[in-house]
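Why this split exists: single-chain examples teach little about how molecules sit against one another. For that reason, every record in the complexes split bundles all components of an assembly together and asks for one structure covering all of them. Below is a record exactly as it appears in the raw files.
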Amino acid sequence: MIQVSIIGSGNVAQHLIIALQNAKTIGTEIELIQVFSRNKESLSHLLPLEKIVSEIANLKAVDLVIIAISDDAIASVSSQLPFDNKLVVHTSGSVAMDQLATKNRKGVFYPLQTFTKNKSIDFSLIPICLESENATDYEVLQFVAEKISNSIFAINSEQRKALHVAAVFVNNFVNHLYSIGNEICAENKISFDILKPLIQETAAKILTLAPLEAQTGPAKRNDLKTIHSHLNFIEDTNQKEIYKILTQSIQNNV
Amino acid sequence: MIQVSIIGSGNVAQHLIIALQNAKTIGTEIELIQVFSRNKESLSHLLPLEKIVSEIANLKAVDLVIIAISDDAIASVSSQLPFDNKLVVHTSGSVAMDQLATKNRKGVFYPLQTFTKNKSIDFSLIPICLESENATDYEVLQFVAEKISNSIFAINSEQRKALHVAAVFVNNFVNHLYSIGNEICAENKISFDILKPLIQETAAKILTLAPLEAQTGPAKRNDLKTIHSHLNFIEDTNQKEIYKILTQSIQNNV
């Protein structure tokens, strides 16, 4: 039996709580002991109140503590834990493992996904990136991760940084391009719904084709006439700059 | 009964041939009469050879001719058709309707999707953008479009241009960001598979949330520490420029 506690009440914490509780119903090898949240009410829809603690000092010494809070607070909270020599991990893509306080054994349990409050998600499909200081702790993390996901990867802190940068490109920046598409539609009284099947297919394509092979469009085929016509059409200076730099980048990669 | 012919043998033409042939099996209201391709062999897997013509002069006068060829050739091919006063449409997102030769009645039949050779696609989900010179012709286009798709939109040439620009952002540019994500993974010996669930969820989110509401990440929350750390990490000048301009653009839109 592995006893787990979670620190945090945000999107990642809540999705982890749900996933661990669902995992618990399958076997009894993992038990969610406590969750820390300054505001107990924020988790009362997920847990019985007696499992929620609002003082760090009231956290019990368990086998595994998962810190799922904002990056800036990880170091400080990990140093306030009222026990030592337990396995303490964070869930951040951009914080190095060694930012955790040294009094406990360190690790990382990073689920690489974009979580939305009130939108359920199939945790079994989410890749979980694991790191630890020693092999025994890695086995504990792997055991817990395998209970909630089918996709586990050993990723060190340097690789995790690269992965987080890559995730910014394929998630944050991609979503911003959706936003620009939405704006262009709105300005021209076109329903954004027209673009949704294209957006879905663009994402679906890279499941079977490498992105470089999937590339199409005026930049890829060096269709200067269409590129100039588009640049003439776009009035917004910012959109024009983005169009230029991404077109250039595609042309450099052909 | 509406008699239809298609000009072209590329991705769009082939997907249209398949969709129209499937539509035909449902009712007998549409008949695919001929397809023009310079190289008959390129379509022999889809059609009986007697339906394929390799000389424009051999095209019969039918109710509707769909020109699905590269943008540059549309005007010229439409002027070579051996009949007049028929409804002739093209399938391009970036060519204005009036580029078609005036001897026939003009229209546009633009399926907004990214087509990949040898990858089947459910045409019923593809938005088809229609335009015509007069209401009667619009009804013909609508009748044919509704046989193969559940998603039909009246879009004039100016709107279609906007839509094509928007499509470049949400398809071509998005795919290029996937490519950059792939590169960063490869350079750091990380499987690109780790990013695939994130990519799928990013696309799925905008089916229920406006892109602006779905935006997350360091730029959105003005997390300058992470942004600087990412910029330090990225060595490629081109990737760095793209990171900067898209971060700035997200920050301007918050």
